[in-house]
Amino acid sequence: MPNIWYGIAAVVAIVFLATTIRIVKEYQRAVVFRLGRLSGVRGPGLVLLIPFWIERIERISLRTIVDDVKPQDVMTKDNVSVQVNAVLTFRVTDPDKAVIEVEEFGFAISEMAQTTLRSVLGRAELDDLLSERDALNKDLQEIISKHCQDWGIEVIAMEIKHVDLPPEMKRAMAKEAEAERERRAKIVHAAGELESSEALANAAKELSADPTAIQLRFLQAMIEVSAEKNSTLVFPVPIDLLSAFTRGNGPEKLQEFISQQAEVEEG
Protein backbone atom coordinates (compact mmCIF):
# COMPACT_ATOMS: atom_id res chain seq x y z
CA MET A 1 0.00 0.00 0.00
CA PRO A 2 2.68 2.57 0.78
CA ASN A 3 4.11 2.06 -2.71
CA ILE A 4 0.72 2.86 -4.25
CA TRP A 5 0.49 6.11 -2.29
CA TYR A 6 3.99 7.03 -3.41
CA GLY A 7 2.99 6.45 -7.03
CA ILE A 8 -0.14 8.56 -6.64
CA ALA A 9 1.87 11.33 -5.02
CA ALA A 10 4.40 11.24 -7.85
CA VAL A 11 1.66 11.48 -10.49
CA VAL A 12 0.04 14.41 -8.67
CA ALA A 13 3.42 16.16 -8.41
CA ILE A 14 4.06 15.72 -12.14
CA VAL A 15 0.63 17.05 -13.05
CA PHE A 16 1.12 19.94 -10.61
CA LEU A 17 4.42 20.90 -12.19
CA ALA A 18 3.09 20.44 -15.73
CA THR A 19 0.20 22.80 -15.10
CA THR A 20 2.16 25.32 -13.05
CA ILE A 21 5.48 26.00 -14.77
CA ARG A 22 5.85 27.58 -18.24
CA ILE A 23 8.98 28.78 -20.02
CA VAL A 24 8.49 31.88 -22.17
CA LYS A 25 11.24 32.85 -24.63
CA GLU A 26 12.81 36.29 -24.77
CA TYR A 27 10.92 37.37 -27.89
CA GLN A 28 7.57 36.09 -26.54
CA ARG A 29 5.00 37.25 -24.04
CA ALA A 30 2.41 35.12 -22.24
CA VAL A 31 -1.15 36.42 -22.13
CA VAL A 32 -2.65 34.77 -19.03
CA PHE A 33 -6.35 33.96 -18.63
CA ARG A 34 -7.71 32.98 -15.19
CA LEU A 35 -10.98 31.08 -15.47
CA GLY A 36 -11.52 32.71 -18.85
CA ARG A 37 -10.79 36.29 -17.76
CA LEU A 38 -7.67 38.25 -18.67
CA SER A 39 -5.19 38.15 -15.81
CA GLY A 40 -2.25 39.98 -17.38
CA VAL A 41 0.81 39.65 -19.59
CA ARG A 42 3.85 37.81 -18.21
CA GLY A 43 7.31 36.86 -19.36
CA PRO A 44 9.86 36.34 -20.60
CA GLY A 45 11.48 33.58 -18.55
CA LEU A 46 9.85 31.31 -15.96
CA VAL A 47 6.09 31.84 -15.58
CA LEU A 48 4.18 30.26 -12.68
CA LEU A 49 0.49 29.54 -13.11
CA ILE A 50 -2.27 28.39 -10.78
CA PRO A 51 -2.33 24.63 -11.33
CA PHE A 52 -4.96 22.31 -12.70
CA TRP A 53 -5.69 24.57 -15.68
CA ILE A 54 -7.23 27.36 -13.62
CA GLU A 55 -4.88 29.69 -15.50
CA ARG A 56 -4.09 29.27 -19.19
CA ILE A 57 -1.72 31.19 -21.43
CA GLU A 58 -1.36 32.16 -25.08
CA ARG A 59 2.10 32.91 -26.36
CA ILE A 60 2.47 35.96 -28.62
CA SER A 61 5.67 36.71 -30.56
CA LEU A 62 6.96 40.29 -30.49
CA ARG A 63 9.31 39.83 -33.43
CA THR A 64 8.84 41.79 -36.65
CA ILE A 65 6.75 39.86 -39.16
CA VAL A 66 7.22 40.25 -42.92
CA ASP A 67 4.11 39.14 -44.81
CA ASP A 68 4.05 38.70 -48.59
CA VAL A 69 0.69 40.07 -49.71
CA LYS A 70 -0.87 37.92 -52.41
CA PRO A 71 -0.96 39.36 -55.97
CA GLN A 72 -4.07 41.44 -56.55
CA ASP A 73 -5.78 42.26 -59.85
CA VAL A 74 -6.19 46.04 -59.88
CA MET A 75 -7.97 48.30 -62.37
CA THR A 76 -6.22 51.66 -62.32
CA LYS A 77 -7.94 55.01 -62.67
CA ASP A 78 -7.11 55.18 -66.40
CA ASN A 79 -8.65 51.71 -66.98
CA VAL A 80 -5.48 49.62 -67.18
CA SER A 81 -5.61 46.13 -65.67
CA VAL A 82 -2.46 45.26 -63.71
CA GLN A 83 -1.47 42.65 -61.16
CA VAL A 84 0.26 44.00 -58.06
CA ASN A 85 1.75 42.34 -55.00
CA ALA A 86 3.26 43.99 -51.95
CA VAL A 87 5.17 43.35 -48.72
CA LEU A 88 3.69 44.15 -45.31
CA THR A 89 5.95 44.56 -42.29
CA PHE A 90 4.41 44.73 -38.81
CA ARG A 91 4.90 43.68 -35.19
CA VAL A 92 2.78 43.22 -32.07
CA THR A 93 3.13 45.96 -29.46
CA ASP A 94 0.25 45.04 -27.10
CA PRO A 95 -0.04 41.25 -26.79
CA ASP A 96 -3.28 41.38 -24.78
CA LYS A 97 -5.07 43.46 -27.45
CA ALA A 98 -3.73 41.22 -30.23
CA VAL A 99 -5.40 38.25 -28.51
CA ILE A 100 -8.63 39.85 -27.30
CA GLU A 101 -9.53 42.44 -29.94
CA VAL A 102 -9.11 40.30 -33.06
CA GLU A 103 -9.19 36.63 -33.92
CA GLU A 104 -5.98 35.43 -35.60
CA PHE A 105 -4.42 38.85 -36.03
CA GLY A 106 -1.97 37.60 -38.70
CA PHE A 107 -4.78 36.50 -41.01
CA ALA A 108 -6.82 39.62 -40.27
CA ILE A 109 -4.06 42.08 -41.10
CA SER A 110 -3.18 40.16 -44.27
CA GLU A 111 -6.77 40.41 -45.51
CA MET A 112 -6.85 44.09 -44.57
CA ALA A 113 -3.66 44.68 -46.55
CA GLN A 114 -5.11 43.02 -49.67
CA THR A 115 -8.28 45.10 -49.51
CA THR A 116 -6.38 48.34 -48.92
CA LEU A 117 -4.00 47.57 -51.78
CA ARG A 118 -6.86 47.21 -54.27
CA SER A 119 -8.72 50.30 -53.08
CA VAL A 120 -5.73 52.66 -52.98
CA LEU A 121 -4.18 51.61 -56.29
CA GLY A 122 -7.59 51.73 -57.97
CA ARG A 123 -7.58 55.51 -57.41
CA ALA A 124 -4.15 55.98 -59.03
CA GLU A 125 -3.22 56.17 -62.69
CA LEU A 126 -0.70 53.82 -64.26
CA ASP A 127 2.03 56.47 -64.53
CA ASP A 128 1.65 57.28 -60.81
CA LEU A 129 1.72 53.58 -59.97
CA LEU A 130 5.06 53.20 -61.75
CA SER A 131 6.75 56.46 -60.75
CA GLU A 132 5.13 57.61 -57.48
CA ARG A 133 5.55 54.46 -55.40
CA ASP A 134 6.84 56.27 -52.34
CA ALA A 135 3.65 58.32 -52.01
CA LEU A 136 1.45 55.27 -52.59
CA ASN A 137 3.42 53.22 -50.04
CA LYS A 138 2.95 55.97 -47.47
CA ASP A 139 -0.80 56.06 -48.09
CA LEU A 140 -1.04 52.28 -47.77
CA GLN A 141 0.87 52.29 -44.50
CA GLU A 142 -1.25 55.09 -42.99
CA ILE A 143 -4.56 53.44 -43.91
CA ILE A 144 -3.58 50.01 -42.56
CA SER A 145 -2.13 51.54 -39.39
CA LYS A 146 -5.40 53.36 -38.78
CA HIS A 147 -7.35 50.10 -38.97
CA CYS A 148 -4.89 48.07 -36.88
CA GLN A 149 -4.09 50.52 -34.08
CA ASP A 150 -6.88 49.06 -31.89
CA TRP A 151 -5.45 45.57 -32.36
CA GLY A 152 -2.17 46.36 -30.61
CA ILE A 153 -0.25 46.02 -33.90
CA GLU A 154 2.26 48.51 -35.31
CA VAL A 155 2.52 48.64 -39.11
CA ILE A 156 6.15 49.40 -39.93
CA ALA A 157 5.90 49.48 -43.72
CA MET A 158 3.65 48.56 -46.62
CA GLU A 159 5.52 48.63 -49.92
CA ILE A 160 4.57 47.71 -53.46
CA LYS A 161 6.79 44.85 -54.53
CA HIS A 162 6.00 44.20 -58.20
CA VAL A 163 3.67 45.51 -60.89
CA ASP A 164 2.88 43.06 -63.68
CA LEU A 165 1.72 44.86 -66.83
CA PRO A 166 -0.17 43.28 -69.75
CA PRO A 167 2.03 42.41 -72.78
CA GLU A 168 0.23 44.96 -74.97
CA MET A 169 0.97 47.73 -72.49
CA LYS A 170 4.63 46.70 -72.29
CA ARG A 171 4.97 46.94 -76.08
CA ALA A 172 3.25 50.34 -76.13
CA MET A 173 5.54 51.67 -73.39
CA ALA A 174 8.59 50.32 -75.23
CA LYS A 175 7.53 52.15 -78.40
CA GLU A 176 6.96 55.33 -76.42
CA ALA A 177 10.41 55.10 -74.83
CA GLU A 178 12.01 54.44 -78.23
CA ALA A 179 10.29 57.47 -79.75
CA GLU A 180 11.40 59.61 -76.83
CA ARG A 181 15.02 58.47 -77.31
CA GLU A 182 14.86 59.29 -81.03
CA ARG A 183 13.47 62.74 -80.25
CA ARG A 184 16.32 63.43 -77.86
CA ALA A 185 18.87 62.19 -80.40
CA LYS A 186 17.48 64.53 -83.07
CA ILE A 187 17.56 67.47 -80.68
CA VAL A 188 21.19 66.73 -79.75
CA HIS A 189 22.12 66.34 -83.42
CA ALA A 190 20.45 69.65 -84.33
CA ALA A 191 22.23 71.40 -81.46
CA GLY A 192 25.54 70.03 -82.72
CA GLU A 193 24.82 71.25 -86.24
CA LEU A 194 24.01 74.71 -84.86
CA GLU A 195 27.25 74.91 -82.90
CA SER A 196 29.20 73.64 -85.92
CA SER A 197 27.68 76.25 -88.22
CA GLU A 198 28.45 79.02 -85.75
CA ALA A 199 32.07 77.85 -85.50
CA LEU A 200 32.40 77.69 -89.31
CA ALA A 201 30.92 81.18 -89.65
CA ASN A 202 33.42 82.55 -87.15
CA ALA A 203 36.27 80.76 -88.97
CA ALA A 204 35.13 82.22 -92.30
CA LYS A 205 35.15 85.71 -90.84
CA GLU A 206 38.68 85.25 -89.53
CA LEU A 207 39.95 83.83 -92.85
CA SER A 208 38.28 86.53 -94.96
CA ALA A 209 40.19 89.20 -93.11
CA ASP A 210 43.45 88.06 -94.79
CA PRO A 211 43.50 86.43 -98.27
CA THR A 212 46.85 84.79 -97.50
CA ALA A 213 45.23 82.83 -94.67
CA ILE A 214 42.75 81.35 -97.16
CA GLN A 215 45.59 80.21 -99.43
CA LEU A 216 47.45 78.67 -96.52
CA ARG A 217 44.32 76.82 -95.42
CA PHE A 218 43.85 75.60 -98.99
CA LEU A 219 47.42 74.27 -99.12
CA GLN A 220 46.98 72.62 -95.75
CA ALA A 221 43.86 70.84 -97.01
CA MET A 222 45.84 69.58 -100.03
CA ILE A 223 48.55 68.24 -97.75
CA GLU A 224 45.94 66.42 -95.67
CA VAL A 225 44.40 64.86 -98.77
CA SER A 226 47.74 63.80 -100.22
CA ALA A 227 48.72 62.19 -96.94
CA GLU A 228 46.04 59.55 -97.53
CA LYS A 229 47.95 58.36 -100.67
CA ASN A 230 45.11 59.21 -103.02
CA SER A 231 45.78 59.05 -106.76
CA THR A 232 43.26 61.76 -107.63
CA LEU A 233 43.23 65.32 -106.35
CA VAL A 234 40.31 67.68 -106.82
CA PHE A 235 41.18 71.39 -107.12
CA PRO A 236 38.26 73.71 -106.42
CA VAL A 237 38.15 76.65 -108.83
CA PRO A 238 37.33 79.95 -107.10
CA ILE A 239 34.28 81.73 -108.44
CA ASP A 240 36.36 84.92 -108.81
CA LEU A 241 38.29 83.40 -111.73
CA LEU A 242 35.07 82.95 -113.71
CA SER A 243 33.71 86.41 -112.92
CA ALA A 244 35.66 87.91 -115.83
CA PHE A 245 33.89 85.60 -118.26
CA THR A 246 30.42 86.41 -116.90
CA ARG A 247 30.58 90.18 -117.51
CA GLY A 248 30.10 91.92 -120.91
CA ASN A 249 31.28 89.68 -123.71
CA GLY A 250 32.13 86.99 -121.24
CA PRO A 251 30.69 84.08 -123.23
CA GLU A 252 32.86 84.92 -126.29
CA LYS A 253 35.95 85.10 -124.10
CA LEU A 254 35.05 81.81 -122.50
CA GLN A 255 34.67 80.19 -125.95
CA GLU A 256 38.00 81.69 -127.06
CA PHE A 257 39.68 80.36 -123.93
CA ILE A 258 38.36 76.86 -124.54
CA SER A 259 39.54 76.94 -128.20
CA GLN A 260 43.04 78.00 -127.18
CA GLN A 261 43.23 75.16 -124.69
CA ALA A 262 42.14 72.71 -127.36
CA GLU A 263 44.84 73.96 -129.81
CA VAL A 264 47.48 73.64 -127.12
CA GLU A 265 46.49 70.05 -126.46
CA GLU A 266 46.53 69.19 -130.23
CA GLY A 267 49.97 70.78 -130.69
Instruction: Provide the low-confidence segments as ranges.
Output: none
Say what the CATH topology of the largest domain is.
Tetrahydropterin Synthase, Chain A
| Whole-number tally of structural domains | 4
Question: Using only CA atoms, what is the Rg?
Answer: 45 Å
Structural class: alpha+beta
Mean pLDDT: 82
CATH superfamily of the largest domain: Band 7 domain
Strand content: 15-25%
The N- to C-terminal Cα distance equals 157 Å
Total E-strand runs: 8
Instruction: Report the major sheet.
Output: 3 strands, antiparallel
Strand order of the largest sheet: 3-2-5
H-E order: HEEEEEEEHHHHEHHHH
Helix content range? 55-70%
CATH C-level category of the largest domain = Alpha Beta
Question: Can you characterise this structure?
Answer:
This protein is about 55% helix and about 25% strand. The protein has about 270 residues and is of the alpha+beta class. The strands form 3 sheets. The protein has a 3-stranded antiparallel beta sheet with strand order 3-2-5. Strands 6-7-8 form a 3-stranded antiparallel beta sheet. The chain is rod-shaped and about 155 Å long.
